[in-house]
Known about the structure:
Low-confidence stretches: none
Number of strands: 6
Mean pLDDT: 84
CATH superfamily: Outer membrane efflux proteins (OEP)
Number of helices: 9
Order of helices and strands: HEHHEEHHHHEEHHE
Radius of gyration: 37 Å
Strand order of the largest sheet: 2-3-4-5
Oligomer: single chain
Number of domains: 1
Structural class: alpha+beta
Amino acid sequence: MTTSxxxxxxxxxxxxxxxxxxxxxxxxxxxxxxxxxxxxxxxPGNATDATVSxxxxxxxxxxxxxxxxxxxxxxxxxxAAALARIDQAQGSLRAxxxxxLPQVDASGSTSRSESSNSTSGTTKSGGGDISISYALDLWGxxxxxxxxxxxxxxxxxxxxxxxxxxxxxxxxxxxFNVLSFRERLAISQESLAxxxxxxxxxxxxxxxxxxxxxxxxQQKANVASIEAGIPSLEDQLKANLNAxxxxxxxxxxxxxxxxxxxxxxxxxxIAAGQPSSLLERRPDIQRAEAQLLAANADIGAARAAFFPxxxxxxxxxxxxxxxLGTSNATSIAASxxxxxxSGGSLEGGLQSANARKVELAANYxxxxxxxxxxxxxxxxxxxxxARREAALAVAAAESRKAYDLSQASYKAGAIDxxxxxxxxxTWLSARDSQAQARLAEYTAAVNLFIALGGGWKS
Length: 458
């Protein structure tokens, strides 16, 4: 048989194999049934359809945050690792899909020999072999394995998306922490300056014998107490700057956040949309479903393993000896391998695949329910902290008035110094609490964006 006839026969064999390989034993997939609420209990009554950019952080209208986010998305090491995992899964998918294609191998050799017999001289010979083999996928075992690998690959893509969302959340939250600690430092330093001015007044009155030493030592203790709180705030500010540097893929040494515009970031109004949309928006839910689909395909492969496998093969070899011509040999064969006794390995494989699907179905449901809770919690936190910050703003303003009045009354001799001390402490505490409540508002907004899956169209 010539090489062209061999190739035509091989192609015909593979075409027949492709027509026969049409069966699959993968169970029909149905998304796990569960109750989906019609809406969120914490959603504002005026929430309407809205389009939010995938770059959700731009809703805060802060150019510094936008620049930091751009750096993080380009240089973050966790994102780089997630991209590498996608490449790994893609490589595994290509390797698995090779089972669906024919395997072609070729080999060749040549030799040269010399004889001491002067009549024989030098003899040259050689040969070559080409073989084609194909595993006939009658029961869809290889296609099931390919489907499982495809879904695993999709799961790594969704895992990458979830990682990106996590990094975005961390960058925004850490940046707002930096702003908050700077604000709280400024509050403490302003309060310290005011307390030091009061100490000058108390010292002067003590020097003239107008007050006892008790007032003086009380104010000195108050000044020292305010001073003691500053290093802790500075330390926490530095720790957040270091964390932000790592998120950007940079060394912490010398890292700083310059913010030319002192305007506070905007607190965005976020329309949550419908809970059912989370199933398509959140990458962690999509990852859980891809893993479930992979497990479903594994069941098909485990079922197919119970049935016989057929392998088709064709080969042609050519041998030649210089001066004596060429010889050809061609073969086409099929082999059947049927499982008879496996000692329970096939049954155990199917049991394991079925149980794995049940496990991942439960994981999927939990991921969905957790997402609903995270949205509800973020909306509740946003509302509670907005009301708290508004009340603390009033408290801070009134406590400043009380502090000013206590100073004036003390100078006039109308009150004792204990009232001044209490007014000082209340003023500092109210302003610091207001700053923390403002941070909680920004954090809740970030958490809500992330809980809703980032950018979306509701």
